[in-house]
Write a structure and sequence with these properties.
single chain; 296 residues; alpha/beta; Arc Repressor Mutant, subunit A; D-Maltodextrin-Binding Protein, domain 2; seven-stranded mixed β-sheet; two-stranded antiparallel sheet; 9 helices; 11 strands; DNA binding; transcription; DNA-binding transcriptional LysR family regulator; LysR_HTH_N
């Protein structure tokens, strides 16, 4: 049983037409018919019911189709892995991420690596606050990371997202029904925020925005991560300013309300060491260049 015979079978099974399947495979119809006959002889069953007007899968053909697809897919992965190894694109890349701000960009990169770089193992570390991720990259503990702290400490950065702040409130809060809200209106509210001690960029940006609006936020509770923070918001502990990406965390009793005017924005960057020139990291960075959008 040869891979080209399996590929021919799958093409005919999907097209249910020998002419279209042959054109798809860039071969003539006669060699394709010969491949199918050889495959049927090898298996000892007929895979297709043929007539002058139609081609249909037999019961054996229907049973054989999915395993044939799986074999072809595995062969494709093996082929890509061998080629990647020849280019030095085999190894492990440790990647740090920073909570909700990475929720959009992280899956785009990791799924692309899994699909296109089968020789690369992505080891994810997080969520960490951005300052922690940056420090770990600078120290060589991590190879790569998503962070909201651009840095020049021997690091390269590439902007991959601009994340505006939004208001998160409980669904029973009076502001939950609003289409938008001005920051000045929040001066009477109690706030839930990330801990100040761990260098949260979201907290710093939120406090700075409130001060520019003429008030200092009354922070009554701190939360270690985005899920806990939004759970406290839904429980009515207070309101919170969060990045737009936090909307990916779905909680029944939390509503997100856009801010009026010039909205503060948190930049999300891909960060790596300038001195790291490994082939495997370069392959991931080249892929990131293709799959991660560049903000306007």
């Amino acid at each position: 049983m040869e891979l080209r015979h399996l590929a021919g079978f799958v093409a005919v099974a999907e097209e249910l037409h020998f002419g279209r399947a042959a054109a798809r495979l860039h071969i003539s119809q006669s060699p394709l018919s010969q491949q199918i006959r050889l495959l049927e002889r090898d298996l000892g069953v007929e895979l297709f019911e043929r007539s002058t007007r139609s081609v249909q899968l037999t019961a054996a053909g229907r049973a054989f189709l999915e395993p044939a697809r799986e074999v072809l897919a595995s062969a494709s992965v093996a082929r890509r892995a061998a080629r990647a190894s020849g280019r030095g694109e085999v190894g492990r890349v440790s990647l740090g991420f920073a909570g909700a701000s990475s929720a959009v960009t992280l899956p785009l990169l990791t799924r692309a690596v899994a699909a296109e770089l089968p020789g690369v193992e992505m080891a994810l570390h997080g969520p960490h606050y951005s300052a922690e991720t940056v420090s770990r990259i600078a120290e060589g503990v991590l190879d790569l990371g998503f962070a909201t702290v651009p840095s020049s400490r021997g690091l390269n950065t590439r902007l991959v997202r601009r994340d505006p702040l939004m208001l998160a409130v409980a669904d029973v809060h009076p502001l939950a029904a609003r289409r938008s809200v001005a920051l000045e209106e929040l001066s009477v509210e109690r706030f839930v925020a990330f801990p100040a001690a761990r260098g949260s960029e979201v907290r710093e940006l939120s406090v700075r925005a409130c001060l520019e609006a003429g008030f200092g936020p009354a922070i009554v509770q701190e939360a270690p991560d985005s899920f806990s923070l939004l759970a406290m918001v839904g429980a009515g502990t207070g309101v919170a300013l969060v990045v737009e990406a936090a909307r990916s965390i779905r909680l029944d009793h939390v509503v997100f309300v856009p801010l009026d005017g010039e909205v503060p924005v948190l930049p999300v960057c891909l960060v790596w060491r300038r001195v790291d020139e490994s082939a495997v990291l370069r392959a991931v960075l080249d892929l990131a260049e293709r799959v991660l959008p560049t903000p306007d």
